[in-house]
Design brief:
The complex is a heterodimer of chains A (479) and B (332).
Chain A lengths: L11 H4 L8 H35 L28 E6 L12 E5 L5 E6 L5 E6 L3 E7 L10 E3 L1 E6 L10 E2 L10 H33 L6 H18 L4 H29 L4 H23 L4 E2 L9 E2 L4 E2 L1 H23 L1 H11 L1 H6 L4 H27 L3 E2 L3 H16 L4 H18 L10 H13 L13
Antiparallel strand pairs in A: 1-4, 2-3, 2-5, 5-7, 6-8, 9-12, 10-11
Helix pairs in contact in A: 2-5, 2-7, 3-7, 3-8, 3-10, 3-11, 3-12, 4-5, 4-6, 4-10, 4-11, 5-10, 7-8, 7-10, 8-10, 11-12, 11-13, 12-13
Chain B lengths: L3 H13 L1 H19 L7 H19 L3 H23 L4 H20 L4 H4 L5 E2 L3 H4 L9 E4 L2 E4 H26 L1 H11 L1 H6 L4 H27 L1 E2 L7 H13 L6 H24 L14 H19 L17
Antiparallel strand pairs in B: 1-4, 2-3
The chains are: A alpha+beta (479), B mainly alpha (332).
Chain lengths: 479, 332
């Protein structure tokens, strides 16, 4: 046997024990090619798609401001308030199309959740109210008072009110709907496409979760934090370092892959070596999730922060459907990545090794697969996918913003999708996540918007009653 | 610079205070589920929520007297346990974990939804259910009492007395239960489910009983705490609270009768002291610790708990008083 460089699968020691049916040089190439296909390729596709939107945006008269829904200059108050009188807070409500929103109720809650004030915007969309003392307050728009056809993107803002400044609270309203008439069928198509987009984003992150479970048995409760950290890294590169979002995302995906690999090397591989039980590992992942989430809170803050690019896009009409460029790009990127993953699992050697380890760890090890290396690759892949999913989730679902709890809310939907499809199966996870995404968006048509994730979580309980192994799972796995 | 006597006094006050009682009751419930039966309930805070809101809504909206409101709250805990147990208890342990955490989050989202404002109070919270609780109090509500050098407000002192009485009764109940044949079957199921089944025990029923009993303790914890605070806010019942209770349980030692209570006292003593220390050390114009912002101290608590929970699980899963061979570490 000729000497070969160490690959991701197999080393010289177990090479002898393995039936040598695949040439090692090809293997190396195939992994690299698969990685490129899976991660970089779709990003370039997305870059082209998103890039196409930039000149279109730039040519719109008049140039759109970065935040669409507020007047940049607040009117100064007539007198300087003393602390006993409380502190004034104000803002102007403006829809994305520039229309001023009157009669919308704004409520303020203090840190204990008590409502301290509320007001209604006047005919010029302006609202003003007074909070009793400095501190952290939550400002919220009452969705029932919002006029029909106006889409609230960010109806809740947490703000520190300090004396001596003029706090301005900005609520963000939805993207302008294109020239499509809202017939029932068009609305149905729009909801379906929204659901598929959301389902694909859940799927991108959920596949990593499912692969980790399949190869190691770990139910990783810290997966949501990988999503958040990925999005925050991309946000930092994009907003603080000023990198264009596509390149920021590419860099963040690399950082995410490294982070996933480091987590495995630093925590999970030693845990496996100590033969730590799965429940012990599960509790450890929860502890990590808690610590990481609040580390992100300290670094990033409790507010929703917007990406610098693609914040204000107009829907384009494609005949049967009108969609913003970033939503279209999200769908295309997700689809491309997921096809890449499927090819990776089916065609490449590392993919086959991943499936082998998931199927039977001991048998895979005894047939010469370096299980630890496969697991390391899975973690890196999961970290990269979580990061990409985090950026796409923020961009398409959270209205172009990042927040510190985004990963946790996505985690529960990931679990729902992954269990619906069958825990530990890659394709099942994809199908399950798509169903959950569509379900969430469809149910939002019938139930209040702040309960829209409910349908996705309820399906989790229903599927466990009816078919606990999931749509594509096998009964043997559920114990 | 750092006022050590205040730190210690606050620490002691926290170690016997309402939070300790609340988390002790949550952890007693978890101890039955996780410690004795090996069930992973990650939604214990959801049981506290249905207990507290069951009582609050029954009293405020249906005009029931407080004692029947308490019954409604406990019943709500039973119903939630049955709903969650039926689909998941036949499956591997982590399914229950995922479903319970999802259910707790669903309940929180529902209670804080603006569409439920007229019923649950939404984000504004619910008040006005618990005046009857303070009527039999022998203490003057507004006065400060000095107990062994620690000052308590009269109304808190009453809540603390009632709370510890409930904790004491719960411990007696758990003590008797785990020594009974029922408790031995539970431990047998934790150690080897198939062996228990081979002996003719209905594993599903025993697990369900453990889940319901633990859930009832969670609901009682929620009720006691709601009576102490006299107001309900949905965001208090967020998922990390369950993990606080787990941390308390694991510190004290799972599968030990007194483990959850001692763990909860240590947990809040340590948390209060570090919290107070950090607040003092980061406050003022020339803080002792300058790299932490005073505003971030609240978040540091969660980081400490998270890291502490992970480290405990790695290096000392049996906690202080537990027996390592009795701690469930591996799923079947």
């Amino acid at each position: 046997m000729r000497p070969r460089p160490p690959g991701l699968v197999g080393n010289s020691k177990d090479a002898a024990a393995r039936s040598d049916d695949l040439a090692s040089g090809w293997f190396h190439l195939s992994v690299v090619r698969a990685l490129v296909v899976a991660l970089v390729g779709p990003l370039i596709v997305g870059a082209v798609l998103l890039g196409a939107a930039v000149p279109a945006l730039a040519s719109q008269p008049p140039p759109t401001p970065p935040t669409p829904s507020q007047s940049p200059l607040p009117q100064p108050p007539s007198e300087q308030p003393s602390p006993e009188q409380g502190l004034p807070v104000s803002g102007t409500l403006r829809n994305a199309d520039g229309r001023l929103l009157a009669g919308v109720q704004v409520q303020v809650f203090d840190s204990t959740g008590q409502q301290v004030a509320s007001t209604t915007s006047n005919t010029s969309g302006r609202w003003e109210l007074v909070v009793p003392r400095p501190g952290r307050y939550t400002f919220r728009i009452d969705p029932r008072s919002v006029p029909r056809g106006v889409n609230v993107l960010q109806g809740e803002v947490v703000r520190d009110v300090v004396p001596g400044t003029l706090p301005l609270v900005v609520f963000r309203f939805g993207e302008q709907r294109g020239g499509l008439q809202t017939t029932a069928s068009a609305e149905a198509v729009r909801v379906l496409v929204d659901g598929i987009r959301f389902g694909l984003v859940i799927g991108i992150t959920g596949i990593g979760l499912s692969l980790i479970f399949g190869t190691t048995g770990l139910t990783n409760f810290a997966h949501g934090e990988l999503v958040t950290i990925g999005a925050v890294v991309a946000w930092t590169l994009n907003v603080t370092a000023g990198l264009q979002l596509i390149w920021a995302t590419v860099l963040a995906v690399i950082v995410g892959a490294a982070l996933g690999a480091v987590t495995d090397l630093a925590i999970w591989r030693p845990m496996r070596r100590r033969r730590a039980g799965l429940i012990a590992q599960l509790v450890i992942s929860i502890g990590l999730a808690l610590a990481l989430r609040y580390l992100v809170l300290i670094y990033f803050g409790g507010r929703s922060e917007s990406f610098a690019d693609y914040t204000n896009q107009v829907e384009r009409n494609y005949g049967f459907i009108s969609i913003t460029d970033k939503d279209l790009a999200t769908i295309v990127i997700s689809l491309a990545v997921l096809i890449g993953i499927a090819l990776l699992l089916q065609r490449t050697r590392i993919g086959k090794a991943m499936r082998a380890v998931a199927d039977n760890r001991d048998l895979a090890a005894s047939s010469g697969i370096n299980v630890e290396r496969v697991v390391l690759f899975v973690w890196a892949l999961a970290g990269a996918l979580a990061t990409l999913g985090g950026v796409l989730f923020g961009l398409s679902e959270l209205g172009g913003t990042v927040q510190y709890e985004m990963g946790f809310s996505l985690l529960l939907l990931m679990f729902a999708g992954v269990i619906l499809g069958g825990l530990g199966t890659a394709y099942g996870a994809l199908v399950g996540c798509l169903v959950v995404g569509v379900l969430v968006q469809v149910s939002a048509q019938f139930i209040p918007v702040d309960l829209k994730y409910l349908g996705g979580l309820a399906v989790l309980i229903v599927i466990l009653v009816i078919r606990p192994q999931g749509l594509l799972g096998s009964r043997a796995r559920i114990g | 610079m750092i006022d050590i006597s205040t730190l210690l006094a606050n620490g002691v006050a926290a170690a016997v205070g309402p939070s300790t009682i609340f988390f002790a009751l949550l952890a007693i419930g978890l101890n039955i589920q996780f410690g004795y039966a090996g069930l992973l309930n990650f939604g214990q805070i959801g049981f506290a929520l249905v207990g507290a809101y069951g009582m609050g809504i029954a009293v405020v909206h249906f005009g029931l007297p407080l004692w029947s409101g308490v019954l409604v709250g406990v019943l709500a805990g039973v119903v939630l346990a049955l709903l969650l147990g039926i689909p998941t208890l036949r499956l591997r342990a982590d399914y229950l974990a995922i479903v319970t955490i999802a259910a707790a989050e669903i309940l929180r989202l529902i209670t804080r939804s603006t569409s439920m404002t007229n019923f649950s109070g939404g984000t504004q919270g619910l008040t006005g259910y618990g005046q009857a609780f303070r009527q039999p109090s022998p203490f003057d509500n507004g006065r400060f009492y000095n107990v062994f050098g620690v000052r308590f407000l009269g109304q808190d002192l009453w809540s603390i007395c009632v709370g510890w009485a409930v904790v004491g009764l719960s411990l007696i109940l758990v003590f008797l239960l785990v020594r009974s044949p029922w408790g031995r079957v539970l431990k047998a199921i934790r150690e080897d489910e198939d062996a228990a089944r081979a002996l003719g025990k209905n594993v599903f029923v025993y697990k369900m009983q453990a889940l319901v009993l633990g859930g009832v303790f969670g609901a009682i914890g929620g009720i006691i705490f709601a009576l102490t605070t006299q107001s309900l806010t949905p965001d208090f019942y967020s998922p990390p609270q369950t993990f606080f209770a787990y941390a308390a349980l694991i510190i004290g030692g799972a599968a030990r009768v007194f483990g959850p209570v001692i763990g909860s006292m240590i947990f809040w003593f340590v948390l209060s002291i570090t919290d107070n220390f950090l607040r003092q050390a980061t406050a003022g114009s020339n803080p002792l610790i300058s790299f932490i912002d005073n505003q971030d101290v609240g978040a540091i608590r969660f980081i400490l708990v998270g890291v502490g929970l992970a480290l405990l699980m790695v290096f000392r899963p049996q906690g202080i008083f537990g027996n390592r061979s009795e701690v469930l570490l591996d799923a079947r």
